[in-house]
Structure formats: C-alpha cells, structure tokens
Amino acid sequence: MNQRYDVVIVGGGMVGATIACALADSDLSIAVIEQQHPPAFSPEQPHDLRVSALSLASERILRHVGAWQGIESRRLCPYSRMRVWEASDKRGATEFDAARIGHPYLGNIVENRVIQLALLDRVREIQNVDLICPARITSIDYSPGASIVQLENGQEIVGRLLIAADGGRSRVRDAVGIGTHKWDYDQYALVASVKTGYEQQDITWQQFTPTGPLAFLPLSGSCASLVWYNTPNEVRRLMELPEARFMAELRDTFPSRLGPIPELLERGFFPLQRQHAQRYVAEGVALAGDAAHMIHPLAGQGVNIGLLDAAVLAEELLKAIAAGEPVESLQVLERYEGRRRRHNLVMMQTMDAFYRMFSNQVGPLKLVRNLGLGLAGRLPLAKDRVMRFAMGLEGDLPAMAQEL
C-alpha cells in the first residue's frame, strides 16, 4: 500500500509533533510516523525521570499549536527564580527572579511524556495530519521530492518533503548522507526523582563542583528532580549502590538547602554528547531538534531550541505555500537553516564554554569564576538580559514564540 503526502515527519516526539500541529489546517497533507505510543498519564503516577525546563518562548509555541491546555490538565511546575553558585550559595552566588522583568515565572518544569501526550492529542484532532503509530520503519529511500519510508507492515509512505525529527541517531539523516560533528563529554548525568521535605518550590538551582554541577528542578507537590553530573565511572558506581547507600551519598553531596529527602522514587543516567549536523537541509529534506543538534544540558536548553526549530520550520513552510513555492525546494528550506543554524551554534558554544570553564580547577580561574558569579549578582541589567535569553525572548523569534 502506497500513500503519498506533501510532508512526512519521521518522529512524533515533542519536536515532530509540534511541527505537525503548527501546520494544522494548511493545504499540506502530512504524515507523522512514530514508533510507539507513550504510556497513558495518570495523576497518581510518580513523576517521570525525563523532564524539561520549558522556556516562556516554548510555552508560547505550545499554546499557539493548541497543546498547552493538555499539559496544564496533566501536570507541570512553574518556577520563578533560579540560583547559581560555586563555592558558597551565600557569597558569590547569583539569583534570577522573573519579577524583575515583569513576568510571573521564568518557565515550567514538565515531564517529557506529558508534553508529547498533549501534542499527540492535538495531532489526532487535525484534519490534514495522519498519525501513523505504532510504526516500525524498515528502510528510508531518500529521493528529492519523492522520498519513500518503508514500514514493517509493508506500507510505503511517500513524501515530497521528508522531515527528520527522529532524534540524535536519526535514520533520516543517515539515509540522506548528512554527516555530523560530534564528541562525547567525559561526563554522565545521573537523574533522581525524589520526595522532599518541602512543599512545591518555585526555584531551580545549580551548584558547580569539581566533578560537575548539582542541579535541583522542582516538580509538582513535594517532589523534585535532582541532576548529578559526574564522570562515567563514578555515575556507574552510584547507580550500582543499594538504595540506602545511594541515598546516604546523595544527602552528603547535595547542599543543605535541598532539605530532607525522605524517599527515592527512581534513578537513571545518560551520557552527555555534543553533536551538530553538517547541514540542516537538502533538497526535499529538513532536520530539526536532536536530529540536527545535541547540546550539553547544563542550562536545559535542548528542548527549547528544538521547539524553536519546529516553529521556524513551520513558519517558513507556511510562507512558501502563501508565495506559491514548493515546500520541498532547497531555496525554501535554506531560509529555515539560515535562521536556526547560527542561533543553535551560539547556544552550543556557550554551553561548551560553561562546561570547560567550570570543569577547570586551576586556582586563579576558580577565583575568577566565583568573583564573576558574585559580580553578576550585582549587575541588574546583565541579569535581566540573561533571564530574557534563557526565557527565549531574545533573537530572531518566530511569530509563534512571540506574545499572544
């Protein structure tokens, strides 16, 4: 069985589903191919390990495509303050407060599954979008203007434009022959979902240590997500510890401002890698999200820049339709790449600089870091600019990310 579409999106995760939703009610016929449905959500379930800090720009995009209500009806945790320090959270620390720039909060911590579920709910409502899920891809035959995605059930999906939203190990990217620049950081992230002795908090914080940052992300209720960056060997050791010994080490390592941690709900880990596609587009194909770039999660910007990719790509495709241009043309797709590649590269290089600066324990540099963090706390205009950047309010914003 052969089905033809104007746009075939491989990957129905957060980025791919956002692209489909952003193209709702257009003249394009769209297929979204996703390997499996995410598990259903119930408010009694413990929080998932994988969460994202959604910026204000990301919230606006998700509101624009009609998915935010589905997130709010499930679970989220807004945060209004962010604190960063190294040696001491009393001296040499910087705290950012959304109230300073007239916003009620900086962003929201949301489970990735909740975001995907809300988006897929919306996808199913859209007349010009077919969700093909569950679906296992057996092969991808790239041909500009007529790429073929072969499914395990024998179905062939043909698309004028093929969009890769299938993650860091993108099969679409490989099929097209687009290479990547990549390297592994000598660091893993251990993530622990815990119960805390405090009620829901409105602050996220990060402490820099010689082996990597310690981060606190508030979740709804008296729950939190803790991120413990360390060397691969140390993270493996921590994962193998019995729960009681692991909790003892966690309590000894994390700062006292965390408060009591009565219960561990779940723990897991993942390696950290930087990866950037050598190009985002070719005739009849576009990469978005992790298929185009993977970034150090230090500032939690990975999902946010992926959603900006989705919004900009959809915006350029809609402009092309209005102008009578073929959406698969290289000229149209290069406009998307031109708007996103440099922005993403700057973000990646900034995160790299932070990683390398705070991984270096040379005495003079450490002193400069602490002086810098302390000084930043006394420069209100600089703090405001950093907040606006982190909230996605700076740069070439697509219309969907601007104030509604």
From TrEMBL:
Record-given protein name: 2-octaprenyl-3-methyl-6-methoxy-1,4-benzoquinol hydroxylase
TM regions (residue ranges): none
A single GO molecular function term of this UniProt record: 3-demethoxyubiquinol 3-hydroxylase activity
Top-rank taxon, per record: Bacteria
Pfam families (alphabetical): FAD_binding_3 (PF01494)
Residues annotated as domain FAD-binding: 5-344
InterPro entries membership: FAD-bd, FAD/NAD-bd_sf, Ubi_Hdrlase_CS, UbiH/COQ6, UbiH/COQ6_monooxygenase
NCBIfam families: Ubi-OHases (TIGR01988)
Family designation: Belongs to the UbiH/COQ6 family.
Species of the source: Marinobacterium mangrovicola
GO cellular component: ubiquinone biosynthesis complex
Keywords: FAD, Flavoprotein, Monooxygenase, Oxidoreductase
Pathway: Cofactor biosynthesis; ubiquinone biosynthesis
Record text on subunit structure and interactions: Component of the Ubi complex metabolon, which regroups five ubiquinone biosynthesis proteins (UbiE, UbiF, UbiG, UbiH and UbiI) and two accessory factors (UbiK and the lipid-binding protein UbiJ).
Necessary cofactors: FAD
Biological processes annotated in GO: ubiquinone biosynthetic process
